Amino acid sequence: MEDFYCVVTFHITQHALIFEKVMKNKDVEVKLMPVPRQVSSSCGTAAKIPCDLEEDIKNWCNEENIQIEGFHKISNKGGSGWFNKLLNNNRGK
Amino acid sequence: MADKRKMFVYGGIIGLIGAILVKFGNPGNMGICIACFWRDITGALGLHRAAVVQYIRPEIIGIIFGSFIVSYLTGDFKVRGGSSPLIRFVLGFFLMIGALVFLGCPLRMLLRIGNGDLNAIVGLLGYVFGIFVGVQFLKKGYTLGRSIEQSKIVGFIFPIFAVVLLIFLIVKPAFILFSEEGPGSMAAPVILSLVLGAVVGIVLQRSRICTAGGFRDAILIKDYHFLWGLIGILVFNLIGNLVLNFGSFKISFEGQPIAHTNHIWNFLGMTLVGLCSVLLGGCPIRQTILASQGDGDAGVTVLGLIAGAAFSHNFGLASSGTGSTTNGQIAVIIGIIAVLIIAYSVVAGAKNRSKAKEVVNNG
């Protein structure tokens, strides 16, 4: 297992669904999942994506008018109870 | 897999507590029921006058304290609000009406199944159907909008409310009503209810288990993370009941405690609950947890639950062991129609706004 993975979070559930469709069309490996505990105490929908595509994904979201709440890099180490937010930008708050 | 196991165990703790509280005096299959308990508190405050369901339930106070303290210590306590509060109030209001026609919130529905009440399986089918309908609106762009940071005092309102309730429970002033018979008079010892309530609050705050979220994610994104929590509740409650409450364990439709056998209204009552829960982003217990960790919108939702409980009993909407009432049946139909109109309007409004934005962007 890798030490970390990346997710994109959204303001609106529908955007997560549109995002999944757009990524699949671009042959990007994507999987919808609950927002990881490390990111938020809410229980919305996030999309797991390859970390190295952050810039591409942000550009594609701009083109497709998908508003993303944030791009998060999540550590697998230390369990989900104690978290590491290694990278957390563009939170849109 | 480790995550799923964790959810299963977290849910299991809730299920076991449900069985323990019945063993120590709570009404049948009502170890924990957020709708019933808020309804009892509403009655104790005199907002409805159904003499058999009035009690300051210590479990609710414990849940609020547990969620508040653990969220404060872990940094999850974030004071936010302003996301369509009036819509949330109305959804909370109708959610409670649906729950009191069925006789229980989604959590009690699981606990009823865990003690053999087959009527609750009919309720479960209705609940999942309601969530399925709600999910269609999510797919079309339903959202109640972003919440924004609020003044810190907003986040303390619910914990302070819990302190006030605790004072009322201990001091028992004359204006607070306590049932002398019926479900409101049946209760586990105060300290036990408080402590186990706090455990429930901590477990649910950390795990984020939500009865609506579990089914929503399974339907919407085929993710079963939270569903494992619900399975844990069911399995451990069943085991807990077989060990602790074997005398009352009975697989049947008839003769179940605080339940009725009107299948259509069990189904439709919980359809309304499922629909409201998914549109609110959480079931009653999740709303109570969120309200305790600084979410002002969830706080407004709980106030909607309280108002719904008051009207349910004042207008004769709530069911009883003998069945649902005509008023309650009419209220469920009105509720389903009203909530569908709200959801449709929200989706239509969001579409119009995004079209207007495109026009502006394209010059």
List the helices and strands and how they pair.
The complex is a heterodimer of chains A (93) and B (363).
Chain A: E1 4-10, H1 13-25, E2 31-34, E3 45-49, H2 54-64, E4 68-75, E5 85-89
Antiparallel strand pairs in A: 1-3, 1-4, 2-3, 4-5
Chain B: H1 2-23, H2 34-44, H3 58-74, E1 80-81, H4 85-102, H5 106-113, H6 119-139, E2 148-149, H7 153-171, H8 190-207, H9 211-220, H10 225-244, H11 263-280, H12 284-292, H13 296-314, H14 326-361
Antiparallel strand pairs in B: 1-2
Helix pairs in contact in B: 1-8, 1-10, 2-13, 3-7, 3-8, 3-12, 4-11, 4-13, 4-14, 5-6, 6-9, 6-11, 9-10, 11-14, 12-13
CATH topology of chain A: Alpha-Beta Plaits
Tell me the count of domains of chain A. 1
- Proportion of β residues of chain B? under 5%
Beta-strand residue percentage of chain A: 25-35%
Enumerate the spans of chain B where pLDDT stays under 50 for 5 or more consecutive residues. none
Q: What are the secondary-structure elements of chain A, in order, as H or E?
A: EHEEHEE
Strand/helix succession of chain B = HHHEHHHEHHHHHHHH
Give the low-confidence spans of chain A: 78-93
Q: Which whole number gives the mean pLDDT of chain A? A: 82
What's the overall average pLDDT of chain B, rounded?
96
Number of helices of chain A: 2
Strand order of the largest sheet of chain B: 1-2
- Domain unit count of chain B: 1
In the CATH hierarchy, what is the class of chain A?
Answer: Alpha Beta
Biggest interface between protein chains, with counts per chain?
A-B, 19 and 31 residues
Distance between the termini of chain B: 51 Å
Summarize the structure.
With 93 residues, chain A is α+β, with helices and mostly antiparallel strands. Helix content of chain A is 26%, strand content 31%. Chain A is built from 2 helices and 5 strands.
Describe the protein in words.
The complex is a heterodimer of chains A (93) and B (363). Chain A has 93 residues and is an alpha+beta fold. Chain A has helices at 13-25, 54-64, and strands at residues 4-10, 31-34, 45-49, 68-75, 85-89. Chain A has a single domain (4-89), classed as Alpha-Beta Plaits (2-Layer Sandwich). Chain A has a five-stranded antiparallel sheet. Chain B has one domain (2-361). In chain B, 68% of the residues lie in helices and 1% in strands. Chain B has 14 helices and two strands. A two-stranded antiparallel sheet of chain B has the order 1-2. In chain B, helix 1 runs antiparallel to helix 8 (190-207) and helix 9 packs across helix 10 (225-244). The termini of chain B are far apart. In chain B, 58% of the residues are buried. Classes of the chains: A alpha+beta (93), B mainly alpha (363).
